[in-house]
Amino acid sequence: MKLLKKTGVFFLLFISIYQISFASQKRTIKTGHITGSAFTVGDVELDINQPLPGVSKHGYIEYQITLKNISSDNPYTVKISMPAISYSTSEAHIEEISRTVVVPPDSNVKVSLFQPPLPLRGDKLKAQILETGEQEVFPITNVSRELFNRWTKYLPCVLESPAVGREEFPFLSVDEKKGYYKGYGGLCKSGVPPRGWSENWLGYTRYDGLLLTASELKDCSPEVFQAIQKYTEAGGNLIVLGKYSPPSHWKDAYAYEKDNRIMSKDQEIDRFLAGIGTCFVIPESNISNISTDTWKLIERQVTVCKDLWEQNEGTNGSTFFPITGIESIPVRALFAIIFIYAILIGPLNIYFFTKLNKRILILASVPVLSLAACLTILLYSAFLEGWLAKGRASVFTLLDEERKQAVSFGWLALYNPLTTDRAIFSAETELNPHLIPDKYSFLGGPCRVDWTREQVFGGNWLIARLPSHFKVRKVETRRERIIVKRIDESGATIINGLGAKIVKFYLMDGKGRIFEASDVETGKDAQLLKVNNIFEKRSSDALNSILAADWLTIKTKVSAKPHLYLSENSYIAFLTDAPFLETGLSEFSINERENIVFGFLKKGIGDEN
Q: 570 pLDDT exceeds 60?
C-alpha cells in the first residue's frame, strides 16, 4: 500500500513538472491565420500558423512558420521538419517535409512547408538549430489526408471567406445517397479574411474554387492578390460577390466579344477567362438574394475543375502514358538463368566434387556460383535497360509575353533502373502523383520533400524499375518569346526565341490574318506564309474548353484544327522539347519531351500594316 502511495506521489509530481515546463515554453500570440502559438528553441522563437481548412484529392497543404531570432549577435541555421515522428507503412505517404533556413540576428524570417497530396504518417513539428544542436518538438494540427481512396467520392472543395456568411450550398452538401464521404470537399469556411491568406499560389492548389466578396479581394495585400491571380490563371475558379472589375488582361480575353455576360434563369453573371481558369463576378452582394440556379451554374464549373484531377484514376499510368524503351519484365530469360543456376548449384555441383572426392569444396562453390548468378542477372538487366533514367513529358504552356508569365501543365513520367533519392523540381511546380492501386492501398512507401531552395523529392517517389507518373502545373516568370520582325498581307518574319525547335507554327495578327511556318530552329529566322480559305468560326472559349478536357487529347485536337484556338495577336507553337518544365533528374537515356505553347503577343502586332 505504501508502495502504491509513493508511486502515485511520484506520478503526480512528474505531471506537475511537465505541465509547468510546457506552460513556460508556450505563449499564445496574435496570428494572421486560423490559430497560432509561439514556441522557443534556443534563441529562436517559432510562430506556427495552422493551415487553412479543406480536404481534396489534389494540390498542396501549406504550413506557415515565422522564425524570430531574439539574439542581436548570432545568426542561426534552423531546420524545421514535420512530422516529428513518422510511422512507416507500405502504402504511399509523407515521411518528412523539411526546410533549412538562416535567420539573421534580431530579425524575422517567414517560411512555408507544403505537403504534397499524400497523407502524413505522424504529427508535430520539429525545429533544430544546427550550430548548437538544440532541438524541440512542437504541437501542430495534423492534416493527415486519406487521399486516393478508390471507394470514396469527393465533393468539389471551395474555400469561403468569413464575409460570405453562408453555412452551406446545395451543391456542396454531403449527399450519402450519391456516395459522397463526409469531410471530403464541400464548403470550407475560413476563419480569417482573405488578407490573411497565403502569399504563394501553391497554398490554393487543393481548392476547386475560392468564394469571397469584392471588398475582401480589394483589401488583400499585393502579394496575396498575386497568389490568388496565379491560382486562377492556373485553372482555378475565382467567385466574387459584389461589384468588381478584374485585371485588364482577363477582360482582354473577351475583347472580340460584344459582351461577356452570361445568364442563369433570373440573374446576370460576369464571366472572365483567366489563363486556363475562370473568374465569376456575381454583382449581387447580398448572399440571400443569389438564386439557386446561379449556384448550380457555379457548381458545374467547380465540378469540372475537380473532375480534371480524377481523370484516369485507379489505372496504371503506363497504360495511357507509356515511356518508350520500357520493356515488359523478361520472365522467360530470368527463369532460364534461375533454372541454370539451380542445376549448377545443385546436382552438377554435388556430382563434380563427389567425383573429385572433395565435397568440402561445396561450401566454397555455392557462394561463388551465387555471386556469378547475381552478376549475370545484373549485367543482363543493364544490357536491356542501361544505367540511365528514361522520361516522357507532354506539356502545354500559356505564355503571356507582355506580362512575362508562363502557365504550364501536363503529364510527366519517369523511370529509373536504379534507386534514386534526389529528384529536383522548381519551388513553383505542383506535382500530383498518379499512384498504382493495390487491393487495399496505393503502392509506394515513405516519401520525403525538402523545400530549402527548390522542391527536392526523396524516398519512394521514384522506385527503381517502376514508372512514376505525375500530373503537373507550374506558374512562373519567363522571358522566352517570339520576335515578330515583319508582318503584312504577303507574309511575316519571326525569330524563334522559345528555347526549342519549332516543328509547326501558327500566328494570328491583330487583323485576324493567319500565318504558318514549319521547322524553325532555336534562335533562327523563319518566313511565314499566309493561310487562306479558313471559314470555320472560332468559339469564344474554345481554348479554355479544350484545356478543361483530358490533357492527353489536346495535341490531337489542336493539330487537327489549330485556327480554332487562335485569337488576335496570338500563336501556337509545337516544340520538340519542353523548356517550360523541368524533369527532375539530370541524365536520361531516353527523354521524350514535347511542348505546345499558346502564346499571346504584345498588343498591336500587325495592326499598323
A: yes
